[in-house]
Sequence to fold (545 residues):
Amino acid sequence: MVNVDHAVPTAAKESDGLRRNVGLIGLMWASVGSIIGSGWLYGAEKAVVVAGPAAIISWVIGAVAIVLLALVHAELGGMFPVAGGTARYPHYAFGGLAGMSFGWFAWLQAATVAPIEVEAMIGYAGHWKWAQGLQHADSTLTTSGFITAVALMAVFVGVNFFGVRALAHTNSAATWWKIAVPLAAIFIIAIGNFHPGNFSSEGFAPFGAKGVLGAISSSGIIFALLGFEQAIQLAGESRNPRRDLPRATLGSVAIGAVIYIALQVVFIGALPHSSFAHGWAKLDFPGISGPWAGLATVVGLGWLGFVLYVDAIISPGGTGLIYTTATSRVSYGLAKNGYAPKAFAKTDARGVPWVGLVMSFVTGVVCFLPFPSWQELVGFITSASVLMYAGAPLAYGVFADRLPHHDRPYRLPAGKIISPLSFIVANLIIYWAGWDTLWRLGFAIVLGYVLLGGYALYARSKGRPDAPRMSFRSAQWLPGYLLGMGLLSWQSTFGGQGNLPLWWDILVVAAFSLGIYYWAKATASRPEEIERSIDEVVVTDAPAH
Fold:
């Protein structure tokens, strides 16, 4: 049996062929830079259309949900400071099948965020005459828009080829700007343009609880708050991951949540009454296609509108840049765990996993075809993201039971309560995304099993020593989990058959989640198997150039 106290320091020394150049600020800014992206440009407008002024409650619920998930990730990130961490925790806890599944969810989430940011950049750029003609009236890309989108994806990939240190410096400068501009918009627009009556004149919650809950997933609230995991994905390049990862994770969530809630309050309060006089669902004002810039112009702050149109290039661009990095690191982690070809684990002279970068570019280009508009991409990626995050609470519960003496630089208070609660919250967010989104996600999941599962079977047939062990016994709960969530969504009032009434459905989802949580804990890998999986990180993660 591998000694528990030995396993974590060994894993912490994982070089991964990557260079440990990133400090606390670099890690935190990677997460904050991911959180403050296109979500701030569109989130407040999309949320108020779905929920009315009660969208503020939606943001608070979303922030609490993300905080719960971030707390779990903070402890896991300190325990296992490895590249592409979110794709690897379920691998340690449940073996190959669950590891492959959640690894695919993580990669799917990371690979599709950069195209969302490109869509946002192009959408706001339509204000400029030189950029008109890039989108059709329904926000789909024209031929010239598609070419522009491909060029922007190429820029994201090109910057990443200069290595993580250059990326950290670039992102750090961009993130200062990305924080300063929303804060400036909050204070400048609020001064002299804040109307308290806007919160009640057409009803505070005109669409009821369903609007409040639906806005959390469908309007981009969760999408906007996602990104805290970027520090964890870069753990293999952190100078002091045990100290810095928990701080960066929790600090980034706090900064993002405060900014987004303040943005929603000011956006509602600053709107002229004429813009929502016919109801919040029919919100309209000149320049609404670029909501914040349009609002600034409407209230007589044309100069600020100009700044916001410029920011609409910088903020989404910075987020797209970071997620392009994350995509290559997740594919790196998949290759290290044996789920993807070893080519994805190769690094160049700068320590960059270049094959993963190329694949992230190709994937981004493909995403412009089936999901052409920002809103459609957001709905899809929110579900993929939270499905990825759901693996962390499950893994946390296993490690708390199986590895109680494992070194934990950050120990989550009341972790045995927060962990199942965060799993419930993750599943509610997935559920609220709606059946129309989830059945499409189901096809993407099947595609992942075909690609990664096919490679795993091929590797085993060739007798490769790094071929993953599927561990069906410890992942026996997984088919029931995925199919069960699909069935609940199909029966929901959120685009489904309407057989699960509101409020009762929350109880059903919560009960189902707890059943899966404790089933997964009971059948998880044994302690010696977990320790062996952790130890294998060191054996297989020699630098590969």
